[in-house]
Design a protein that fits this description.
Layout: E1 6-11, H1 23-32, E2 35-44, H2 59-72, E3 78-86, H3 91-102, E4 107-111, E5 114-115, E6 118-119, H4 131-148, E7 154-155, H5 175-187, E8 191-195, H6 211-219, E9 225-228, H7 241-251, E10 255-260, E11 263-268
Parallel strand pairs: 1-2, 2-3, 3-4, 4-7, 7-8, 8-9
Antiparallel strand pairs: 5-6, 10-11
Helix pairs in contact: 4-5
The structure holds zinc ion (2 copies).
The site of one zinc ion has 4 residues, from loops.
Length: 269
């Protein structure tokens, strides 16, 4: 038996355009998998560039469903009311702020799926520049946004950019800017996540975050760190959580973080 309670802090349901299981199915799967706490973090990505994504999502319905399912499963699994916001500069920041403040969420995952008005997943961000230059530009963009925007708890999949380029660049010349992002996060009392979907994306050793980023975060004094599968269907709920715990311990972290009413709590690893 695994002694540390298993928590999954990044999951999607059919409230997300790309989710394929209902909230009830996801929470039921978590209970069956021995997960003691699951954060549902559906997408609120108001200015995502692809058609059919994001804004039609009803936060009122979402909240109502969260409350119902939480009550239904309360004896088996703790349901955390989360939201994954898609951060972009400009007016998107106001939309995100508004969404976060309008509802009583426990946990806000701040993620980047776009940068400089490009969507990352279709590779357009890499056009007409080297992978190294694009990756540097990505982290600068993240820094600029997070310098202005503080209404989140944890930065989602920090090195998401590595998924979408033609190859993963050497981070030798990138660690300075990554370091600035991490210092900003720590200074603001925010955290990062280990996102185990890197294995589903076939990223091999290029985990999310990479070992180097994780080590740097620890060295800089980062303590808030959540773990999430980024599951979009029942089959991935809880995926890789034990792996993440072992990874965290090997790097020197002693606690995994959970959130209640936007306040971090710490479970000993
Ligand atoms: Zn995401
Ligand atoms: Zn996600």
């Amino acid at each position: 038996m695994y002694l540390t309670p298993l928590v999954d802090y990044h999951t999607h349901t059919t409230f997300s355009t790309d989710g394929s299981s209902t909230m009830r199915e996801m929470v039921s799967a978590a209970a069956d998998a021995g997960i003691s706490e699951i954060a549902i973090t559906d997408h609120y990505d108001p200015d995502y560039r692809l058609d059919g994504w994001g804004e039609e999502f009803s936060q009122v319905e979402y909240q109502n469903e969260l409350i119902l399912v939480r009550e239904e499963f309360k004896d088996r699994v703790t349901l955390v009311k989360g939201l994954e916001i898609g951060i972009q500069h400009g007016d998107t920041l106001n939309k995100c702020r508004q969404a976060v403040r309008s509802f009583n969420y426990d946990f806000i995952l701040g993620s980047f799926h776009c940068a400089e008005e490009f969507e990352l997943s279709n590779g357009s961000f890499f056009e007409n520049r080297s992978v190294e230059a694009a990756t540097l530009a990505f982290y600068k963009y993240v820094y600029d946004c997070l310098y202005d925007y503080k209404d989140y708890d944890v930065l989602g999949h920090i090195n998401v950019i590595d998924r979408y380029g033609p190859y993963v660049p050497s981070y030798h010349d990138l660690m300075d800017v990554v370091s600035e992002v991490l210092k900003l996060i720590i200074r603001d009392g925010k955290g990062i996540e280990i996102n185990t979907s890197s294995f589903r994306y076939g990223m091999g050793d290029h985990t999310t975050p990479s070992q180097d980023i994780l080590l740097l975060y620890h060295e800089l004094g980062g303590e808030i760190i959540t773990v999430g599968s980024d599951a979009h269907s029942v089959c991935d709920v809880g995926y890789g959580i034990k792996w993440a715990y072992e990874k965290m311990k090997s790097v020197g972290f002693r606690y995994v973080t959970t959130f209640n009413q936007r306040k971090p709590e710490f479970i000993k690893l």
